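Supplementary Note 3. Input sequence used for the single-chain structure prediction.
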Amino acid sequence: MKISFLGAAGTVTGSKYLLEIANKRLLIDCGLFQGRKELRLRNWRPPPIDAGNLDAVILTHAHLDHSGYLPVLMRSHYRGPVFCTAGTKDLCGILLPDSGYLLEKDAEYANREGFSKHHPALPLYTQKEAEETLQSLRVVDFETEFSLGDGLTLKFRPAGHILGAAIVTITDGKRKIVFSGDLGRPNNAIMVDPATIEETDYLVVESTYGDRLHDRSDPEDALEAVVNETVSRGGSVIIPSFAVGRAQSLLYHLYRLKQANRIAGDLPVFLDSPMAINASEAFCKHHKIHKLSDDEARAACGVAKYVRTSNESKALDASQMPMVLISASGMATGGRILYHLRRFAPDHRNTILFAGFQAEGTRGDRIVRGEKEVKIHGQMVPIRADVKRLEMLSAHADQSELMGWLRGFRKAPERTFVTHGEAQASATFAEKINKDLGWSAEVPSLGDVRYLG
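The predicted structure, written as discrete structure tokens, is reproduced below.
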């Protein structure tokens, strides 16, 4: 058994692990690098593996930092299956084509406005290439022992992160390796708790929040305060949101606040992201794998007016009325949120409310860190709006919650690899594991190879 760390090593993004076992070459996750330019440029390099010699790709979940490189892999002559859960398949059907579409639009805009250094600017992949990729997705149900051939089996167990997110277990009957994927939080309002894993020989565990704890305050109290304070000064709440998971969580809490008359019932809420709209519909479809009933899910998603067309989106920027506007992307790296930030960020009456992790170097990270202006579409935009965060809405387990999940193992894995975190977060978490649990934990670097016997 051999594992190569081809992404999510020293950074949160670009998740890719090549597992070679029983004469099989398996790629666990196939994600895009996001964030700093030096990271994004890695997406343009030749694939770090011979795609034609891969036997299978296995996805932990649909977020683009875990699935978004698939169209590039397919263009590089990968023709095998991509195994995932039903929820992940449906979400990839939304996320990947949307990613291709946005990449094409960003390239077109750069060419039209002339602010790209490349002539012409080209997309990493197209919407058509992303759509063609979906034909390779194969569903494996949760809690099912699925044969990969040559005595290998695969099992998906709930990770609680987003719809369909899975903890991956692969075994050859003698040795077992577990990939945590992105772990959700216990007692989340809408997602199931991460499954307890009792044993494995080798473990690859995420560390997104491996060096910090989340705010334990009630998210509805915090959201109520932000909304009411902003509306009282005549402003709007602009929420850059991850379209999958976070948007649905926000809608649920806004629904509950309106039902309890804690925010004005007639305050308009807009969901301005075709991808988030489609993800919300998928969330309602798969109500059996999250905590809400069909009626609860549909009522929560119904709290917002869905904004589907670009003309409807532009009309919001011309509006003077207070509102809550949820739009993608969650780190303000692309999509319709950029147009709304150009319009609303310069006005001190408004609030920009971040509700998730901001990878180092992203536009969202710079705004949260207090930069007074950021570049959007080639122009510097002043940030005069109030900037707030709702960290308690994170879909990632924090250090304490990650440690709680690890304590579910009945004995220590032979080796534990800490990945999917910024360098400081991973190092701190590995040290915590070594000290508190007495395990053998290490932080691999990008490109590292480990032989596991």
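The longest strand covers residues 152-158. The domain at 2-212+395-451 is CATH 3.60.15.10 (Metallo-beta-lactamase; Chain A).
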